Amino acid sequence: MMRTVQRPADSNWAAGVEVAVVIPAYRQPGLLPEAILSVLDQQGGPLSAVVVVDDGCPYPETAETALAFASLHPGRVFLLRRPNGGLSAARNTGIDFVLGALHGCRALHFLDADNRLHPHYLARALTALAAAPAEIGWVYPDIDEFGGHDHWTTGGAFSLMQLLTCNYCEAGSVVRREMVEGGLRFDEAMRDGFEDWDFWLSAAARGWRGQHLPHAGFRYRRRPESMLSSSERLRPLLLGQLHRKHARLFAPRRLLAAEAAEVPRFALHMPDEGQVRLVVDPAGEGTGLPPSQAREAMLAAMEQPSVCQYPEILCFTETSVLDLLARSGVLHMVFWWAERLLRDAHVAALEIVPTDQPMLALERPGPAEGQVASAPLVFARSQVLWAAAGDPSPAWIESLQGPKPQPITALLRLRLPAPGSLASPLPLRLLLLEVAALARLRRRWSPLPAGWKREYRPPRGRIAADAEAAIGIGRLLPRLPRPGLRDIGFLLPLFAFAGLEKVILNQAAVLRRRGWRTHLIVLGQGRIDRGAEFAGAFDTVMLLDGLGETAVSWEGGYFGAGVSHFGGSQAARDVLGVLAGLDVLINVHSLAGQALMAPLRRLGVRVFGGLHLIEHGPHGEPRGTPHVQAAYEHAYDGILVISRQLRDWCIGAGIPARKIHLVENAPGYATRPSRIAAALAARQRQRRLLQVLFLGRMDWQKGLDRLAAIIGHSAPLGLRWRVVGRAVLADAAVPELGVPIEPPAIEPAALDALYAWADVLVLPSRFEGVPLVVLEAQRMGCVVIATDVGAVAEAIRHGEDGFLVPHRQAEEAVIDGFLETLARLSADRALLAGVATAAAARLAKADWPVRMQDFLDHLDRLVPVQGQPG
């Protein structure tokens, strides 16, 4: 690069310059003098210098003009010449020169060669920078056009969230020297535009912030064809480049934190608090305002939506209701669903129906099926209430008090264990009182006079949603991270009282004790079974009823595996918003969720698949999640398997061995050693009749037709049978078994009593993983007879601590194998006692924390606790 610098003979030629204006010059020699003169004519403040960077301009007049000014104004005008490198390269050349040559310079300004400055601009900017906090790295002006006819305001407090979605900071801003001394530069690879937006985002990523400069005096030349118009034609491409480069600023957790700091989403109206609390996370403290001040803030947001913000959603309730929802782990779910429903409704109301069943259910009844007037939680959009306050008699408001609210009302119904009735007229009364108070405010309201400058930025109320949409997700679940805790979610298609769910409960409980917040997400169902151990396993529950259920296909997939079509829709983006705030997600058999794993991984979420068994169809054909997992393997950080058999199958299917984590099963619940000892002691006593138990899901997988045949042919043996369980799958057909089917045993004491009662547990399944019922029975000294499917052989050593019946033989042979083993044990009680003792000894040391240790260590390395080294 060749520099030409005109300077006086005095060796202190740079002394006294406090602000340097860098003017890149390329193909605009006729306009350059205006730009230079507008700097030289600055008044009322610091001495300014002009650094013209000739960026390989083909017109010789550019250098001639700059040299002429340098001769006339020695020590104030400098010319640098370089090969053409684009606008960013020219500005960077100017920055480097200023830092190296103008040591007293406190600030820099970037002025394009076709723009101008008002005579007092730099003085105002330097004064503002000097008075600003140290984190303010630049001051930015309004944009007053000449050539065109528009004038744009960028007033109000600086908002990083707004900057993420709209570049309202003109390149012609004044930058503190320290900001570029730290190495910040314009990206020279961005030659098609948006390089100034990128510069401000890069500054923000380093902790710098901007500040608006009122009455700045920046003049922007507007022409119908310019570099800006060319950039706008490439907008989607350039935005994608920005989002990829600044992925950390757009990281979901960072977006949520910025939203909480700048644009809270909910206004909580709770009379027992005596204030309106503005929050993103309903479990957080947020900012409290007196009700009158909150209404004034709403008014300001309605008048100046791009300058002021007020939460889009108002919530009316009582503290006790939010506390109940928080204890039940559903607080954030309710707020997320309410916000989603309010896209198409004016009001959303939540009914809470107490139940004595161990379950949790979320339903969405029609408007005629619920009572808004008694709902303990009511949501409304602030703009809707503001509009209603200006209507003397809004019919839809009146309808809320009757039995049939208008269709613009959306209802949620939550069934959960809770004491007594939770109906309350207070929330709706609060809403009506708020409308009346807003109406009084509107009557006193004198609208601000229309400004002569147009607003450049989008409304602040939508900037968080816009930023989230920019990275392909819907509204983020309103749950803020907690310092020192990491968040891990388990994604399932359903959650019932079955072995797989017990595995998840135990794994979640161990993770929780390890310092993780644990979250259950059920994609496609609105109900889960929830036993006593649930509260110790999961912090929160998210029921995504009706989402993703039909977006799957079992035809045409990879080697016949299922395919997820749940991607690209608004519903899929909504679910991504739920999941994107996690550190880790484990997808356990959710086919619909497979399409979301790659997007989540790009967003920084660590994604694992959880495999529990290899399924087979009615004709023995392979199907199920392992085959799906092989198809989607590239989208995952790792795969969890519960058996060596599954690990070997995955390696054979092409999944890299380093991705596979073996986490073997242990019994599904803890029990007292005294119960085990009592059960083993009782088994030493002879019984006249052998007592046989089937315990499990009443589904085809469990071999119910075989069970019926075994029971039917066992009469000569004189056995006592008990069958315990229920169907989980909707299409399950339970054959006549010849004995009553008892309801499922859920609590540990009830399960221990069953295992202690039984001498033998039979499991004639067609496919399995490592059933927890086998491990639980063995621990109590109950002898297991099972088909040798799946990884059952890893839990049973045939003839030593249980018995295996070959599966790959005729059905009659399988049934005969069970009957023969039952007859043998009935006749030889010594054999029964020996096998029982061996089984109990084998399971004595089975422990979930021990079996999960390697995976826990891996997670610690992958996602270290905040503040700890990775």
UniProtKB/TrEMBL annotation:
Domain Glycosyltransferase 2-like: 21-145
Pfam families: Glyco_trans_1_4, Glyco_transf_4, Glycos_transf_2
Residue ranges occupied by any Glycosyltransferase subfamily 4-like N-terminal domain in the UniProt entry: 499-665
Protein name: Glycosyltransferase
Organism this protein belongs to: Belnapia arida
